[in-house]
Specification:
By secondary structure, the protein is an all-alpha fold. It has one domain. The chain has 15 helices and no strands. It is globular. The two termini are 13 Å apart.
Length: 395
């Protein structure tokens, strides 16, 4: 499973990467299968905490962006003046496409099943009940044109998500962050071989153009991604001594921001964008965790590493595919009423979430696990053309 292994000091960040993907899946599953908090019979302390944490799907995506900037943007900073855009582009597309294209095929299959047996779902009839999925205002399509638009990451920019897979919107902003940042990096002198002012100006204008047309609807997304890049720079230049107390304190602050910030944001009493606050608080967690060693935690170090590696490896496949199975479950069993989170309801929820993780693992095993083989094949062929390339770490 070498495609998603990072340096040993990033094992805690790998854990967060897997946790965030699982978190998003749990949020969507709870919204589609369990009743809203206002409809609970005798809510208790557990219900309050459970509904709070499974209501943070959007915040989890923001933290994903920070991690993406840390690893992908950080890899550009690490290359420095040796950065090669053509190599970088090939590797990024390889990393994204190997799991994405099978996912789009699976999305087509699920979309056709729902269209055939549960057509009301596609009209947005149940969006008020599930708080996600197709809405009455959405433009649903599983056409070849929409398929290609999603392959080239145009959803949310000039198009919408392919079929019923509503989580694909964030992937477009992720990819275009990959494209915009290198342009600014090159423009400001981050690599050699482009000393001509005309070339640098062209690349700078290209970066600004992409930024304007892609991020004009959600410009804060790119700045959150840049927070991740800045965090990598801080971690590499101003490394802190491993300190579990500081780290756990930063986690407490991050959770406090999620708790207090969500309430204040709903009341519109925050002067700056809530997503930036979430990103900044999580960036501190990333900085303080970047050089922690879990091997010092007697008894759980090895288990933690294995678990972090497993969930980090499947996180992309889990994020891409989970919503398809959540929507299928909702379409088959939760179109009229949802379950109470009593003992039976919670056990059912855990079984369903476990099945989604297991299916995502199977899809990872079939497709994403082989990403590094395609990567190495591409690098080998580029090397034959005189490019002495080293195999970079993959996010």
């Amino acid at each position: 499973m070498p495609e998603s292994k990072h340096a040993p000091k990033f094992v805690v960040l790998d854990f967060f990467r897997g946790l965030l993907a699982l978190w998003v899946a749990a949020c969507h599953l709870r919204g589609c299968t369990l009743v809203d908090f206002s409809s609970l019979n005798n809510p208790n302390w557990f219900h309050k905490k459970f509904y709070f944490f499974t209501g943070l799907g959007g915040e989890s995506v923001i933290c994903f962006f920070v991690l993406s900037g840390f690893f992908v943007g950080g890899s550009i900073l690490k290359k420095g003046k040796g950065f090669k855009f053509d190599e970088y582009l090939v590797l990024r597309l390889n990393r994204l496409w190997v799991p994405l294209i099978p996912n789009l095929v699976l999305t087509l299959i699920v979309s056709l099943i729902i269209d055939r047996f549960y057509p009301d779902v596609l009209t947005g009839k149940y969006q008020y009940l599930w708080h996600t999925g197709p809405s009455p205002q959405s433009i649903y399509s599983h056409s070849l044109v929409r398929f290609l638009e999603n392959v080239f990451f145009l959803q949310g920019i000039v198009s919408t998500e392919f079929g019923v897979n509503c989580v694909l919107w964030s992937l477009a902003y992720e990819f275009w962050s990959y494209m915009v940042f290198p342009c600014f990096f090159i423009f400001f002198g981050g690599r050699r071989g482009l000393d001509g002012r005309a070339k640098k100006c062209f690349i700078g204008i290209l970066g600004c153009t992409m930024f304007y047309f892609v991020f004009k609807k959600w410009f804060v997304g790119f700045f959150v991604w840049l927070i991740g890049v800045a965090t990598f720079y801080a971690a590499s230049r101003y490394s802190q001594k491993p300190n579990w107390i500081l780290f756990l304190g930063s986690v407490a602050i991050w959770l406090g921001v999620l708790g207090c910030g969500k309430t204040l944001n709903s009341q519109r009493t925050i002067l700056i964008d809530y997503n930036l606050i979430v990103g900044l608080s999580f960036a501190i967690v990333c900085w303080l965790s970047s050089n922690l060693s879990v091997s010092t935690v007697i008894g759980i170090g090895r288990v933690f590493k294995k678990s972090a590696e497993l969930f980090s490896n499947i996180s992309y496949s889990l994020y891409l595919n989970h919503f398809l199975f959540v929507l299928m479950l909702a379409s088959m069993s939760y179109r009229q009423t949802k379950s109470q989170p009593d003992l039976v309801g919670m056990l059912t929820f855990l079984i369903q979430l476990s099945l989604i993780v297991a299916i995502s693992y199977g899809l990872w095993f079939l497709f994403e696990r082989n990403t590094y083989k395609a990567r190495d094949y591409i690098l080998k062929n580029l090397s034959r053309r005189g490019n002495a390339l080293k195999s970079p770490q993959s996010f």
